[in-house]
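Protocol step 4 of 5: obtain the predicted structure for the target chain.
Materials: sequence only (see below). No template structures provided, no constraints applied. The aim of this step is simply to have a reference model before the mutagenesis design in step 5. Sequence pasted as it appears in the construct record:
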Amino acid sequence: RQAEVRREQARRAAARREAQRRLAAQREGVRRAAMGLDRPGDLPAAVNGGSVSYRRSGGLRGRPYEAGRGA
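Step 4 output (structure tokens):
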């Protein structure tokens, strides 16, 4: 009976390790997709479901309100 219990515990532990491994692989896949590492380099981002941003890369326009009116 004890051997049977140990076998069952070992089986559960192996199942837990496999589930952890699968979860880690899934997380890594999501992380790589978010960083764009799994995208083929010869296609633009929008072709692979990425988004195209038309925002200016220079930051916000003008000056912050707190900067005052200037002279």
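Step 4 remarks: The chain has a mean pLDDT of 76. Residues 12 and 64 are 59 Å apart (CA to CA).
Proceed to step 5.
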